[in-house]
Amino acid sequence: YKDANELMQKEGGTAMKRILDNAQEVPEKGVVDIESQYDNIYSMYKNGLPRGLEIGIRDIDDNIRWSTSHLAIWTGIPSHGKSEMLDFIVAKLAVVHGWKTVFFSPENYPLEMHYSKIAEKLTGRQFSRHYMTDEEFDEAFNFISEHFFWLEPYEDTTVESILMRTKYHIKKYGIKQLVIDPFNCLEHTRRKDETGSDYIGRFLDELERFARKYDILIHLVAHPVSYTHLTL
Description:
It is elongated, with a radius of gyration of 24 Å. The chain is an alpha/beta fold. 50% of the residues lie in helices and 9% in strands. It has helices at residues 4-11, 14-21, 38-47, 58-61, 82-97, 111-123, 134-147, 159-173, 196-214, 224-231; strands at 70-74, 101-104, 148-150, 177-180, 217-221.
C-alpha cells in the first residue's frame, strides 16, 4: 500500500498495530546483532570449533591448518627457505581447495622467475623443456593464470596501496590469499609519537582487520632483522 491510510482502509484499523508489533529495528551501523549469527553459532555448537583446512601432507596437517580471516607471519633465519615453503603451501591450497592468491613479492622478482618456481611445485619437475613436456607446461600455465596474480612490487609499496589493489582482486577474481614477501620491502611511515613497536602493532592490526573484513588469509614474511631495525 502507498501509505498507512490505504492500509487501514483495505485491512481495517488493527492492521497498523499488527505491522508495528512485528516491525524489526533498523540495524545500527557498527553494531552486531547476535540473532543474525544464530546459524553460525548453532553450527559451531553441533559440529565443534572449525579446525581449518588440510593440504594432504600428514606432517604438516598434524601441526597446522589453514583458514581465512587470519594473518600468518612467516619468520626465521634469512635464506633458509621461508619463501620456498610459503610458495609450496599456497600452491597446495590452490590445488586442493581452489584458493586463489595475489602476490606482493619483491623477494621473488622478476615475475618469470617466481612463475617458474610455482610451476615446478605444481608439476614436480624442473622448469625446463628437458624435464617438462609441452603438455605439462600448458597445463601449469593455464592453472597458474587462473589461480595466481601479481602486484607490481615497485609501483607503490605502501600497505594502503597493496590492500587497495588486493581489494580489487578480491572483488574481480575471488582471491583467498595475499602474500606480502617481505615486510622490509614495504614503505613504512611511522608517526612522530610512535615507537617502532607501536608502529609494528598498528601495521599488523591493519592487516588483521583487512583479513577479517574480506575473509582472506594474509601471509606476511618477516626477516628478524626487519623487526630489529624498526625497534631501534
